[in-house]
Every structure is written in structure tokens, then in C-alpha cells.
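Quick one, C-alpha cells below. Sequence please?
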């Protein structure tokens, strides 16, 4: 729902997102989109950029309200930390996957006595069964890494969810106090 709201905000602000993704969290806003990019000052939503070319994740530039409380800041920073951590993991994982896949294809083609490119200049490929061997080996080799990633991801999401609950409770209590005060007058 928040993503849909942010998407509507992007379209309302000019038809799309003008941020470019970067290969690391080099953004001055800490959100992972292009260096120095900031949504317009009147924006009250998170901005979601195009998929990063290395991690395939969509970077988010988090809205920072002027009256952000300490608890809301903790929540935003936890979300930013989770995004940066996730970005680094998938950029490294995808790079390793591509490198190992190319090495696998090269070694299989070499074993068959074939060149990397055929006579028309097209890249030679392996069939689905041969590639299935690579995918199975890659997943088996990286099982522990993925298991640790999943464990850490759940920990981070639990923390974020807990903070979101606290923020929602504080906002609800603030609204009820305001409502009680406005009805009492």
C-alpha cells in the first residue's frame, strides 16, 4: 500500500522517478538512489527508484518529516540500514552468480571443443539440462550463505515491524489526545 502511494506521488510529481540507481549506497540521502538526488521539498512520501543494475532491487529514498520524533527516526534508520544491507548482499550475490555462470559455460563449452562464440558471432549457449547442473551446484554451494541471509533478514524485519507498531501506537495515542481535547472545548 505504501509503495502504491509512493508510486502515485511520483506520477503526481512529474510522471515518474528521476532518480538513477547506483551500485552501492553512495547516496547522500542514504536511500540508495543516485548521488545527491532528493525528492522535492513538498513531497511527503518515500520515493522508489528503478531497479539497481547490480542487485536488481529498487532503491528507496525515505521521506524525513520536519517534526520526526526520535522513535520515527529509529524506524527510518532501521529501514535504511536494512535496505543498504540487502543491497550489498544481492549485489555481491548476483555478481558471484554471473561470474560463476560464465566460468561454468566456458568450461563446458571448452570440454565439448566449442568456442564461446559460434561462426555467426553469437554467444554459444548450453541446454537447459546442463544449466540445471550449474543452478543446483550454485544453490548447494551457497546454502549456508542464504540460510544466514534469511535469518538476518527476519531479525531485521521483526525489529522494523516492532518499531512500526510503536510508531503507530504513539500516533494513535496522540490523535486520541487531540480528539479528546478538541471535543472538550
Amino acid at each position: 500500500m505504501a509503495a502504491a502511494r509512493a508510486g502515485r506521488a511520483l506520477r503526481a510529481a512529474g510522471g515518474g522517478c528521476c532518480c538513477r540507481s547506483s551500485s552501492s549506497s553512495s547516496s547522500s540521502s542514504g536511500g540508495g538512489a543516485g548521488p545527491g538526488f532528493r525528492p522535492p521539498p513538498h513531497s511527503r512520501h518515500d520515493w522508489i527508484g528503478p531497479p539497481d543494475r547490480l542487485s536488481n532491487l529498487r532503491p528507496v529514498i525515505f521521506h524525513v518529516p520536519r517534526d520526526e520524533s526520535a522513535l520515527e527516526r529509529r524506524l527510518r534508520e532501521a529501514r535504511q540500514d536494512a535496505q543498504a544491507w540487502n543491497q550489498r548482499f544481492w549485489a555481491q550475490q548476483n555478481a558471484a552468480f554471473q561470474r560463476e555462470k560464465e566460468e561454468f559455460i566456458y568450461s563446458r563449452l571448452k570440454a565439448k571443443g566449442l568456442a564461446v562464440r559460434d561462426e555467426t558471432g553469437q554467444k554459444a549457449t548450453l541446454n537447459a539440462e546442463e544449466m540445471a547442473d550449474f543452478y543446483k551446484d550454485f544453490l548447494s554451494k551457497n546454502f549456508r550463505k542464504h540460510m544466514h541471509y534469511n535469518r538476518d533478514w527476519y531479525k531485521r524485519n521483526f525489529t522494523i515491524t516492532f518499531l512500526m507498531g510503536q510508531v503507530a501506537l504513539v500516533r494513535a495515542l496522540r490523535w486520541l489526545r487531540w480528539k479528546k481535547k478538541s471535543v472538550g472545548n
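The two ends are 36 Å apart (CA to CA). The chain has four helices and two strands.
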